[in-house]
Structure formats: structure tokens, C-alpha cells
Amino acid sequence: MTAMEGEASGEQSPLGSELVRGMKSCVPVLLGIIPYALVLGAQASQKGLSVIELPLMTGLNFAGGSEFAAIQLWTSPPHIALIVAITFLVNSRHLLMGAAIAPYLRHLPKRKALPALFAMTDESWALGIADAKARAKRGLHPAFSLPYYLGTALVFYVAWVAFTTLGAALGPIMGDVEAYGFDMAFPAVFLVLMRGMWKGFAAARPWLVSLVVAALTYLFVPGAWYVAAGALSGLIAAYVLTGDEA
């Protein structure tokens, strides 16, 4: 990979400095990710996953929300079809996220754009788009810095796999880690990300619909169907309400 091309200001940002800039920018979010990575690891160990199996799951899947759902649904033997279906529903938000980031990737060849999409998480997506918007305001082209984005994705990937594995190793010692309040870090991180993406109440209506449907389903329907209900209702609401927002 070469240095960034086409910086309108004439500044040539070396690959290394952009990578480091991306790594540094994700540190505040990373501090929120570590606690719930430990929670996931501990919960997985309580479900019988070993410190070998868990990093395989978190490293190959690399999607925290669906991994939490999978662990909640995990039985012996596991209901593979149900877990796959829930994973698809939870990760279906990536369809909208991919559509939102696609305009920023048009200058990239597919051999770079596709791996970048594979590494996309809620956190790297939010930071990457926020940085692209900031660069666009400064007149920099291309607005999207691939090295910056990859710097954030690399840190999140390594930290996620490492701390979920650590959680699995410490889980039997720590017991019920939810008693420490670590699980509160999960919604806290997403609230911070939502704050950065806030465009007003009208654009947030799909989030509200998803929240209400998931909460009602959680209260009145046994099992983990609230995950599917929240994901589906959010997607439907986004599709129906997009015209109004536009």
C-alpha cells in the first residue's frame, strides 16, 4: 500500500502515521469495549466454550452483538440453524452500514474495499465515517482515509479477540462477572456511537421502533426472540421511514 493519494492540500500522510492516527483515535472507545469483551468471554466459558474455541469464534465472526446472542442461545448440542438465523438478523444492520459507507469507498479498488468491509464493525464504521466527514470539511481528497480506518479496525480486532479470550480464562475464577456491572459497558459504548451519528429525532425513529419492539418482546415473549424482533422491526422501520427522512 502506498501513501495516501491525492491529498488536495498537498500534504502526503504516510501510511504509518495514518495507521497510528486511527489507532490513537479508537482508544476512548476501546476502554468501553474491554469490559464487555471480558463479559462475553466469561459467559462463553460458563456455556462450556474453551479458551481455544472462543478466540476461533470471535476471530472468525468478529461481530460482538451476534456473538452475545449466540452465547445466550448456546446449548449442548447447539441449535445451529437458530444461531445462524439470529446471527444473520443481528448483523443485517451491516446492510445499512455498508450502504452508508459505500460512497466513501468508491475511489478504492475492490481488492482494498472488500477487505475493508470485512473488518467493518459498529465502532470502526462510526469512526471511519466521522473522520471522512471531518476530512471532507477540510477539503482533503479522498475524504475516506483507508489507513486510518484500518488502524481502528486492527486495534478493535486484536483487543476483541484478546480480551474475550482473557474473559474465558478468568470466567471460572471471577464467577458471575455481570455482578461487577461490566455488562453496562455494552450499551454505554453504543450510546456514545449513537451520539456521534445523531441527526435529529426524525432520523432516529427506526432506532426507537427497534428499541420499543425489542423491549416489549423481551417482557412478553420467552427466549431470545427480542433480538430478532428488534433487528427486524428496525430494518422495516428504516425502509418505511427513509422516504420521509430524505
From TrEMBL:
Keywords: Cell membrane, Membrane, Transmembrane, Transmembrane helix, Transport. It is a multi-pass membrane protein. InterPro entries: Brnchd-chn_aa_trnsp_permease. It is found in: Cell membrane. The keyword Thylakoid does not apply. Coiled coil: none annotated. Its main location: membrane. The chain crosses the membrane at residues 22-42, 54-74, 80-105, 148-173, 179-196, 208-241. Belongs to the AzlC family. This is Branched-chain amino acid ABC transporter permease. The lineage of its organism: Bacteria, Pseudomonadati, Pseudomonadota, Alphaproteobacteria, Hyphomicrobiales.
